[in-house]
């Protein structure tokens, strides 16, 4: 937490890095001269991507069980409202190749709850509501149990929200297909 990073075009900012199934950098959009609720999405995406790249260059992540998971997946810009409140807190998650999540992001909400708990801003079983700045969709989350993960203090987090089917697929395998079990390239 409270890691100072120099972001080209934006200067020094302070980020928190949290893990909730993936690593994310978190900071208020205000540090970048933006408002997560009213700035243009393209501006938020550009700024978040600059933060992601800067963190990747200036900070080495470690995962207690698998170094394959020790990479920054994206940056989540927030409204800065991290202390417990009944009011929703808003964020935008920019991940992978400048993709924007339509939701507050399950792994992101998990990481954000863990950070808020770590900083003493929320207690166990205090439910927070998180809003996506792009779609307005809502998730709730709460830390339900303090624990350890490797040598790290951790919490188990519950996240909930709505999900909707967007399609289905059917795969058919014919018995005569000589490649029905797949193949490898040399």
Automatic annotation (TrEMBL):
Its EC number is 4.2.1.77. Keywords: Lyase. Pfam families: Pro_racemase (PF05544). It comes from the Eukaryota. The keyword Lyase applies. InterPro entries: Pro_racemase_fam. Gene3D superfamilies: Diaminopimelate Epimerase, Chain A, domain 1 (3.10.310.10). It catalyses: trans-3-hydroxy-L-proline = 1-pyrroline-2-carboxylate + H2O. GO terms for molecular function: trans-L-3-hydroxyproline dehydratase activity. PANTHER family: TRANS-3-HYDROXY-L-PROLINE DEHYDRATASE. Homodimer. Belongs to the proline racemase family. This is trans-L-3-hydroxyproline dehydratase.
């Amino acid at each position: 937490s409270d890691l100072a990073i120099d972001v080209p075009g934006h200067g020094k900012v302070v980020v928190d890095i949290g893990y909730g199934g993936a690593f994310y950098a978190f900071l208020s959009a205000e540090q970048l001269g933006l408002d997560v609720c009213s700035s243009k999405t393209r501006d938020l995406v550009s700024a978040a991507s600059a933060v992601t790249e800067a963190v990747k260059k200036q900070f080495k992540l470690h995962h207690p069980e698998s170094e394959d998971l020790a990479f920054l997946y994206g940056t989540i810009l927030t409204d800065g409202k991290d202390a417990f409140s009944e009011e929703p807190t808003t964020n935008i998650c920019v991940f992978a190749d400048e993709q924007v999540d339509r939701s507050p992001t399950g792994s992101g909400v998990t990481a954000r709850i863990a950070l808020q708990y770590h900083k003493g801003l929320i207690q166990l079983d205090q439910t927070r509501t998180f809003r996506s700045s792009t779609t307005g969709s809502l998730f709730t989350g709460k830390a339900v149990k303090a624990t350890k993960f490797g040598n790290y203090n951790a919490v188990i987090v519950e996240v909930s929200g709505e999900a909707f089917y967007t399609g289905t697929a059917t795969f058919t395998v014919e018995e005569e297909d000589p490649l029905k079990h797949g193949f490898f390239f040399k």
